[in-house]
UniProtKB/TrEMBL annotation:
It comes from Lachancea thermotolerans (strain ATCC 56472 / CBS 6340 / NRRL Y-8284) (Yeast). This is KLTH0H09922p. PROSITE patterns: DNA_PHOTOLYASES_1_1, DNA_PHOTOLYASES_1_2, PHR_CRY_ALPHA_BETA. The keyword Flavoprotein applies. InterPro entries: Crypto/Photolyase_FAD-like_sf, Crypto/Photolyase_N_sf, Cryptochr/Photolyase_FAD-bd, Cryptochrome/DNA_photolyase_1, DNA_photolyase_1_CS_C, DNA_photolyase_N, Rossmann-like_a/b/a_fold.
């Protein structure tokens, strides 16, 4: 059980009780990866509690808090794209909260200690500032985060509770809470399809997931909030060292507001892209998927709301017999379910968030780990046009589609025989939507080292991928300008041979056929 902090946290959540209302003078909602006011479990509970407390203590306050720690950002390898997006999202959150009469307090912590040994610092600050300004005890609410360090941090915070500092955590990140869908033997499913059937049944039988949680405005004078606002200016004093790592001014990120997230969802549905999801999602040049992932990862929209909207669009039905098997909107919902699946998996196998393969036996694979080849993969200089196009798009925009992610992950881990963890880290450092569980899950799937993974002998055939998903070479030409005038289909799909004259574009760093055989051999040897 000690190995499953998610189960331990869930026990604490189930046991948590509201302290005597008359004893609480302020409720602090601690925003983490839930940067929204709509459909937010912990925030809505914070407001509900505040209303109850107000019955006995008229001037009890709601304080909205966000904490920044440069050290954490670095440790998580979060990309400049993701951080810029989150900082912008914070500004829009501030506006939304203002309309609710709540000021957002951003507090910067400097500690370089690991997250789980830092709980005292947080509690001390809450006591020194919030407790003294509110002139009474404080209740902190937050939504659970399922990465291992974050789970242990919250467990420690539960232990640190006393009269002055009370702590309540809520499940909010998944549509179906981790640990609630188990096999007949009570264990976590290892295969997605049966898990998905249970997920759908759960959705159908529970009201949860159907209606967005309502958030009410707070009627308060922001006396305490204003006093705490002094921390604000300090919070944004990011170190020069960190600013160099976060070149905000050079990055153009999508607009980061809750309204934008909802508009994007609406547009995805009304443009027909949701209804044509199956036909269009894999075509590389169309970029027709929802692009909601950065909004979901930063918490600007809940997956509950995304699924509800799609569910409604599908005539409130999922897995109905009279619906064609290949229903596009249902397949979209199924993709969103993969996100829940990987979070459930990470809660059950916490080492998934520590760069350890779920299929232990694959730890014996003799990766070639050629640094030069890896670096060419990173920069889009492999000479394999489709791989280069995708990797350049990632570098320039921070976003690539699922098909793109699968192609380059298969190429790195199989054809180049580079340890999947190198690629997983590179993705984290460059994705706008970097999410530990989905990223590790996706890499585990493509490199055949993870849960419900592709069999190891499934190695993407680049020529076939191009034939199917970039038949006219439009995507490749868009991102590999060296080939913009090439009319030889072989060059566009398989790269140039030594004999082909193509200015400034290299020939492939590996032979696809040979490298495929080498990968099969390496996997066979280890398994
Ligand atoms: P849509 O196709 O419109 O799907 C809607 C939502 O469903 C997405 O926003 C996402 O939240 C969820 N989703 C869709 N496909 C998946 C999937 N296969 N696994 C989990 N959730 C999914 N997704 C991330 O959010 N963060 C990551 O760091 C990440 N890393 C990945 C790494 C690899 C190697 C692979 C193969 C996949 C990874 N994914 C990751 C999953 C998926 O590629 C992205 O969620 C998706 O491409 C985002 O684009 P979209 O919002 O347009 O997706």
């Amino acid at each position: 059980k000690r190995e499953k902090p998610a189960a331990l946290l869930d026990e604490r959540i189930k046991k948590q009780k509201l302290p005597a209302k008359a004893d609480i003078s302020a409720v602090v909602h601690w925003f983490r990866t839930d940067l929204r006011v709509r459909d937010n479990a912990a925030l809505s509970n914070a407001i509900k509690l505040l209303r109850e407390i107000r019955g006995q203590k008229k001037d009890a306050q709601l304080i909205a808090l966000y904490t920044i720690n440069e050290h954490d950002w670095r440790a998580h390898l979060d990309s400049g794209w993701k951080l810029t997006f989150a900082l912008n999202a914070l500004e829009s959150l501030r506006e939304m909260l203002k309309q609710m009469n709540v000021a957002l307090v951003v507090r910067k912590f400097e500690s370089k200690k690991p997250l789980l040994s830092r709980s005292s610092e947080f509690v001390d600050w809450v006591k020194e500032q919030c407790v003294s300004l509110a002139q009474g005890n404080v209740l902190v609410t937050a939504n659970a985060q399922y990465e291992t360090d974050e789970l242990y941090r919250d467990l420690k915070l539960f232990d640190k509770q006393d009269e002055q500092f009370r702590f309540q955590v809520y499940h909010d990140q998944c549509i179906v809470q981790p640990g609630s869908l188990t096999t007949g033997k009570g264990s976590q499913y290892t295969v997605f399809t049966p898990w998905y059937k249970r997920w759908v049944e759960y959705l159908k039988s529970h009201k949860q997931g159907k209606e967005a949680i309502k958030i009410h405005a707070v009627d308060q004078e922001s006396k305490v909030n204003e006093s705490l606002a002094k921390f604000e200016s300090e919070a944004y004093e990011l170190s020069d060292e960190f600013l160099a790592y976060l070149p905000c001014d050079k990055l153009e990120v999508p607009p980061a507001t809750e309204a934008d997230a909802h508009e994007l969802l609406q547009e995805f549905i009304s443009s027909g892209n949701a209804h044509k999801y199956n036909e269009k999602k894999d075509t590389l040049s169309l970029d027709s998927t929802s692009h909601l992932s950065c909004y979901i990862t930063s918490g600007l929209i809940s997956t509950r709301e995304v699924v509800n909207r799609a569910f409604h669009e599908n005539g409130d039905s999922l897995m109905r017999r009279d619906i064609k098997q290949n229903n596009s909107v249902e397949n979209f919902i199924k993709e969103v379910a993969w996100r829940d699946f990987y979070k459930h998996v990470m809660c059950n196998w916490p080492y998934m968030s520590m760069e350890i393969a779920i299929k232990f036996e694959t730890m014996d694979i003799k990766w070639e780990n050629d640094e030069e080849k890896f670096s060419k993969w990173c920069l889009g200089e492999t000479g394999l046009p489709v791989v280069d196009a995708i990797m350049r798009k990632l570098l320039y925009t921070g976003y690539i589609s699922n098909r793109c992610r699968m192609i380059v992950a298969s190429f790195l881990s199989k054809n180049l025989l580079v340890d999947w963890r190198w690629g997983e880290r590179w993705f984290r450092k460059h994705l706008l939507d970097a999410d530990l569980a989905s990223n590790a899950g996706g890499w585990g799937f493509c490199s055949s080292t993870g849960i419900d993974a592709q069999p190891y002998f499934r190695i993407f055939n680049m020529k076939l991928q191009c034939e199917r998903y970039d038949p006219d070479g439009k995507f490749v030409k868009m991102w590999v300008p060296e080939l913009k005038d090439a009319d030889n289909v072989r060059i566009i799909r398989e790269g140039r041979s030594e004999k082909d004259a193509v200015d400034g574009y290299p020939s492939p760093i590996v032979d696809l056929k040979d490298s495929r055989e080498r990968a099969l051999e390496a996997f066979r040897e280890a398994l």
